[in-house]
Design a protein that fits this description.
This protein has 278 residues and is α/β, with parallel strands linked by helices. Helices cover 49% and strands 13% of the residues. The strands form two sheets. The protein has a five-stranded parallel beta sheet, sandwiched between helices. Strands 6-7-8 form a three-stranded mixed beta sheet, covered by helices on one side. Helix 6 crosses helix 9 and helix 9 packs antiparallel against helix 10. It is elongated, with a radius of gyration of 21 Å. The model has no long low-confidence stretch (mean pLDDT 96).
Length: 278
Amino acid sequence: MKTVDTVAVLGLGLMGGSLARDLAERGLRVVAFDSDPETVAAALESGVVHRALPVGLEGLEDAELVVLAVPVRQGPTLLGRAKPRLTRASLVTDVGSTKLTMVQAAESQGLGSRFVGSHPLTGDERSGWSASRRGLYEGARVFLCPAESAGASAVERARGLWASVGASTEIVTPEAHDEAVAWLSHLPQMVSSALGLALGSAGVSRSSLGPGGQDGTRLAASSAEIWTDIALDNRSRLLQALRSFENRIGELRSAVQSGDEEKLKDLLRASRTWAGGG
C-alpha cells in the first residue's frame, strides 16, 4: 500500500464504509461515491472521506486503487460507468458475496488485467454507513478471485490492501468461491430468515427468545435488498444447499412425527459431533 496515495470507495455501507475508515486512518486519501446524499454528508463530516464523487464519477481518475462496495447485481453496471475514468487505477476490486458474475463483467469490459475480486468473510446483520466501523476486517478471512487475465502485480496489490487492514487472503477461482459460500454464508442466512418467518407466523417475538434462539435468528435482521441480490446471483448453487437443508429438516420432522427415538438421537448426535460437541 506504500505506492498508493488515493483510494476510491464506491459505496459507503457497512463494508465500504468500514474499509474507508480503516484506510483513512492509515493516512490514505479517500474519495468516495454513494447514491444516498445523507450517507455522503455523514462520511464527509466524519473526515473519513476527503472528497465526494458525483454521479458521473468525475474525479475517479485520481485513484490508484478502486473498490466497488455495492449490492452484487449493481456491480457490473457501476464498473461500466467507472471504466472510462480508471486511468490511474492499477487495481480494481469489489467486496461482494458472489464473484463469478463480477469477474466475468470485468473481463468482458476489458478490465480483467487489473481486476481481483474480493470477498471478506466478515460483517453482521446491520447495514449502512452508521453500521460501519474501524477494525471490521481485523483478523478477517478474505477470498481473492483474480480475473483470468489479472496480472501478478494486481494480485499482490490486492493482498497488500487487505493485509493493511489486518486481514488474511486466500486465492480461489470465482466458480469455487461461489460454490463454497453457498454453504458457508448463503445457506446460514436463508435458514436464519426461514426460522424468523416461522417464529413470526407463530406470534413469537425475537426479544422473547433465549440466547440460543437469538443467536440462531441474528442474521434474519440482515438487509433484504442485499440478500435478494446475493441469492438470485448465486441461485443454482444456493438451491443445492437449500435442498440439502430441506432433506435434513424432513428427516427430523419424520423422526419426531413417528416417535422414532433412536433415529432422532442419531440425527442430533451427528449434528452435535459436527459442531464439536463430541
